[in-house]
């Protein structure tokens, strides 16, 4: 069972996660979720560990039972303009902006984050497998993005987005080689193997790296 909170004495703790960071096409999506303190669901886990049908079931549960939730996206043009790391954080901020209940603390899946105003936060490595609120955010970000890529598939069926959702599968890359790029492809990414390698994990000076909390350091 995932943990309900990180800071016991804070009433509203929001979990944040993104989906689509490593894709060659489409937006990056992010979600922010505040769950009730006593929320429990045995099925809830990191969205990547679940079947699509289970993610769809959990999305309904999260949207029904969350104190507040929001989903936002940043498109491929903005990703190309500011880079995928900044775009991921921007999507998280946009989701947080939309919450009907503003959080007193933010839990972010990963190892870095841009501070959201003066709200304290913690970056949790593999947090979507530790905290319920982050897992819930991962479910919403993933399911909303998958829906969006299904719509794009209707416009560009040759790229297999119904199955690969824009990720760099062999089929997707072969389709790029055959049909060329679409308006939804991230042109700053290495779309084909013979393109120069790009480093998307390079440090970004204006971003704050906070304490990374490992599973061993977390407490009930």
TrEMBL record:
The keyword Manganese applies. Gene3D superfamilies: Ribonuclease H-like superfamily/Ribonuclease H (3.30.420.10). A divalent metal cation binds at residues 17-18, 109. GO terms for biological process: DNA replication, removal of RNA primer; mismatch repair. GO terms for molecular function: manganese ion binding; RNA binding; RNA-DNA hybrid ribonuclease activity. InterPro entries: RNase_HII (IPR022898), RNase_HII/HIII (IPR001352), RNase_HII/HIII_dom (IPR024567), RNaseH-like_sf (IPR012337), RNaseH_sf (IPR036397). It catalyses: Endonucleolytic cleavage to 5'-phosphomonoester. Manganese or magnesium. Binds 1 divalent metal ion per monomer in the absence of substrate. May bind a second metal ion after substrate binding. Its EC number is 3.1.26.4. It is found in: Cytoplasm. One of its GO terms (cellular component) is cytoplasm. Its cofactor is Mg(2+); Mn(2+). Residues 11-201 form the RNase H type-2 domain. Its main location: cytoplasm. It comes from the Bacteria. Keywords: Cytoplasm, Endonuclease, Hydrolase, Manganese, Metal-binding, Nuclease. NCBIfam families: PRK00015.1-3 (NF000595). PANTHER family: RIBONUCLEASE H2 SUBUNIT A, RIBONUCLEASE HII. Endonuclease that specifically degrades the RNA of RNA-DNA hybrids. Belongs to the RNase HII family. HAMAP family: RNase_HII_B. This is Ribonuclease HII. It comes from Chitinophaga pinensis.
